[in-house]
Design goal:
This protein has helices at 23-35, 83-91, 106-116, 139-151, 165-175, 219-224, 244-255, 274-278, 295-302, 318-321, 332-342, 347-365, 368-376; strands spanning 6-11, 39-46, 64-68, 71-76, 97-101, 121-125, 159-162, 181-183, 205-210, 233-238, 261-267, 283-286, 307-310, 324-327. By secondary structure, the chain is α/β, with parallel strands linked by helices.
Length: 379
C-alpha cells in the first residue's frame, strides 16, 4: 500500500511569483520542483514582492492557492498579517514538519518558532544568516537578538538546516551543541540536456552581474576594479537598488571609468528570464562579501558562462576546474589582472571554459546524493 506523502509547511517572507528578494526564493522553488514527488508543500508568505506594496496579480490573498498537485500557497495581505491570524492559520493547517526560513523575520521566522516548537517537528533554515559575513549589516541588533533568543531557549528542540559543513560550524558556534544540524546543499534549477550554442568573442567583452545593488554584494568594488582595464569591455548589472546612497557612490565610480569601459544598470530581471539573459554574455561577475549558496553563480555555469566571483562562497578552486576564478575581494590588483586577462582571452580557451562550466553544473544538478540529503531534511 502506498504511503501518504508527508506534509511540509514552509514560512518565508517572500515567495513566487515574486523574485526580488533573491536566493531564498530560488532555493525553495527548486526544492519544491525536485521534491514534489515525495512531499506535499504548504507555503505561507506575503502577497507582495520584496520592496513592493502591490499584491501579486492572479492570486487570492488571505486564502490557500493551489499551484500544482504538490504545492499550495497562502498569501497574507499586509492588513491581515498579525500574530492572531498567523496563529489561527498554523493551528488550522495540517502538516508534519514546519520548515522555517531565516532567523530575524518577526512573522516568518521568530513567531513560527515560538508558536510551533513545542507542537511540531521544526526545522530552521539559517540561510547563511549566522555566518560571520552576515554580521557586516546591522551587527548590534542581530547579536542582541541572538543573545536574548539563547537566554530564553527560543530554539530549544529545534533542528537547523545548513547548506554545507562550514555553515554547520557557524550555527553551532552561536547556538551551541544543544541543537541538531542537518546538512544539505541547495538544489539547482533543472537544466537543459545540452549546452547552449557557444558565444563568439567578437567586439567588446560582455560581462553580466545579477544581484541586488548593495554593499554585501560588492557592486562598488566590482565597478572600481574595472579602472585599469585597457581594452573595450561592457558590464551590465541586473538587480534592484537596495541602497540608493550606495548606488550613488557606484554612479560616481562609473563616471570615473575610462572611455573603453561601459557599465549599464539594466534594472530588475524576472527569474524566468535569468538563464536566457546570462547566456548572451561572456562572463558572469559577483564579487560579494559572501554567499551561503549563490544560485546566480550556478545558473551562470549552467548556461556555459564562466564566472569571476569572490572566495567567500561554496564555489571554490574554480581555476583548477577550468570554469572561472574565485578571488580575494580585498586584492584589487588581482581582480583587475583577471579582468584584463579575460579581455584578451582567445576563442579556443573560452570555448573550453564554457564547456567545462556547463558540465560542472550538469553534474551538480543531477547529483542523487544531493537529492537524498534534501529529502532527509524532512525524514
Amino acid at each position: 500500500m502506498k504511503q501518504p506523502k508527508k506534509k511540509i509547511l514552509i514560512t518565508i517572507d517572500w515567495f513566487l511569483p515574486g523574485t526580488k528578494s533573491g536566493g531564498p526564493v530560488r532555493s525553495y522553488a527548486n526544492m519544491l520542483d525536485h521534491l514534489g514527488a515525495y512531499f506535499d508543500f504548504y507555503v505561507i508568505t506575503r502577497d507582495t514582492d520584496f520592496l513592493s506594496d502591490a499584491a501579486y496579480k492572479g492570486i487570492q490573498s488571505n486564502a490557500w492557492n493551489t499551484i500544482n498537485d504538490h504545492t499550495q500557497i497562502y498569501y497574507f495581505s499586509k492588513e491581515a498579517l498579525n500574530k492572531r491570524n498567523l496563529k489561527a492559520l498554523l493551528d488550522n493547517t495540517e502538516f508534519d514538519v514546519a520548515y522555517i526560513n531565516g532567523i530575524y523575520s518577526w512573522y516568518f521566522s521568530i513567531l513560527p518558532v515560538m508558536l510551533l516548537k513545542n507542537r511540531r517537528n521544526v526545522l530552521v533554515s539559517a540561510r547563511g544568516m549566522l555566518n560571520p559575513q552576515a554580521f557586516s549589516v546591522k551587527p548590534f541588533k542581530k547579536k542582541v537578538f541572538l543573545a536574548i533568543a539563547n537566554m530564553f531557549n527560543l530554539y530549544k528542540g529545534v533542528t537547523f538546516h545548513a547548506t554545507n559543513k562550514e555553515e554547520a560550524v557557524h550555527i553551532k558556534s552561536i547556538m551551541g551543541d544543544k541543537n541538531e544540524v542537518k546538512i544539505a546543499a541547495n538544489l539547482a534549477r533543472k537544466m537543459e540536456s545540452e549546452i547552449i550554442s557557444k558565444r563568439v568573442l567578437t567586439g567588446p567583452l560582455k560581462l553580466v552581474n545579477v544581484a541586488r545593488i548593495s554593499v554585501e554584494k560588492g557592486t562598488l568594488k566590482m565597478i572600481e576594479s574595472l579602472k585599469t582595464v585597457e581594452t573595450e569591455l561592457i558590464l551590465d548589472i541586473y538587480g534592484p537598488i537596495y541602497d540608493h546612497d550606495y548606488w550613488g557612490k557606484c554612479q560616481k565610480a562609473i563616471a570615473q571609468l575610462p572611455n573603453n569601459v561601459t557599465v549599464n544598470h539594466k534594472g530588475f530581471i524576472e527569474s524566468d528570464l535569468v538563464l536566457d539573459t546570462i547566456k548572451t554574455y561572456d562572463f558572469f561577475v559577483l564579487l560579494s562579501e559572501g554567499e551561503n549558496f549563490g544560485h546566480a553563480i550556478l545558473e551562470a555555469l549552467s548556461v556555459g558562462c564562466p564566472v569571476i566571483i569572490s572566495d567567500k562562497t561554496p564555489w571554490r578552486d574554480l581555476v583548477s576546474k577550468g570554469i572561472g576564478w574565485d578571488l580575494n575581494i580585498n586584492d584589487s590588483k588581482e581582480i583587475s589582472n583577471i579582468f584584463e586577462y579575460i579581455s584578451r582571452i582567445n576563442q579556443d580557451k573560452y570555448n573550453e571554459m564554457a564547456k567545462r562550466a556547463f558540465k560542472f553544473a550538469k553534474h551538480f544538478s543531477e547529483d542523487e546524493q544531493l537529492l537524498n540529503q534534501n529529502k532527509n531534511l524532512f525524514l
